[in-house]
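Protein entry
_____________
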Amino acid sequence: MTAQHRGQELLEKIYQEAVVSYENDGPAPGIADAEERHLQTIIQNQENRKAAVAVLVTLLLKKILSPSQDIRLHRAEFDGGFSGRRLDTQVVTPFLRSKQFPSMSESGWLTRSFEQSHPFDFDYPGNITPKVLKRSFLCLIDVAQRQGATISERFLQRLFIGSVEARDKNTNLKLARPVDLSVSEVVEKLRQHHQGKTSGAARLPVLAIHAILSVFTRETERYRNRKLLPLESHTTADSRSHLIGDINILDADETVFEGYEIKHNVPITSELIETSFDKLRTTPVQRFYILTTYPHHSYDEFKEDIQRVAHTHGCQLIVNGVDRTLLYYLRIIGSTRSFIDAYVTLLESDEDVNFPLKESWNQIVESG
């Protein structure tokens, strides 16, 4: 049996034990109070600090598979080290994704916080934030390294119990779908939702614009025989070299008809317009929108930039606020209910929307 296969089987075994313990409300495995607090810190940050979870699970797994390995030496280039990134990429991240746990697109080692060429000891210089998370992360590694495979397995089981609990809470959450809201009420609730302090909020205005376009393109003559593409993951959108924005509408011949670039709390500037224009130079497109949640009082200062794009490219560049765009489009569609349904459906299904963002939507709706 290969090491990869052994790792997969071991994670599955510990996961099944965690599920049984969770479903039976069984006690957490024998873990000291100090380590339990550290594990709680990891669990509480798992949605927003996925890399920390991936790296920690990888190191704990390695300690079980190879008890004599110093798991602080997480790079093959270290004397006596091993490739943590390889184990994560081949085994851990695919496993986390298969269980619908918070996971990276490829590996936790691809983030700056964890890529430092330094052992994971208490002198590790990586900027792991918040500081309490860094402390808990390094303390758990230290305990696992000193106490060995048994405590590493207990740590993994406790982490999985926490992940199962969070996943089930997330899955079972029913999102509010208010009806008969006025246009201004809808825009105000969206504004509150998008301006929340929860990590990942930058995804929300993208969902809102996509949702309104999904209704708009069905109901208006301009978009007859044209196709609104589904959203891709926030972490992979930039790789689509043949497309030009966060949101794309294709013409009947599969060329891009319109593109939308959505910014969150980022002011529009001439420099930003120039950067966006670079995407258009080799792409024939009728309209390109740059929308932001940043509160501009006026967009008149960008008239020269817009005229330059039209003269150079022939594209109609539209610079505006997310709120203003939603307000205009909502007045055109048949009902606000169809938009709310589309937006909530995206909130429920989009993999980049974490539980706190979903929960905040219900709180905003229920607040009246």
Summary: The chain has 13 helices and five strands. The first helix runs from residue 3 to 23. The radius of gyration is 24 Å.
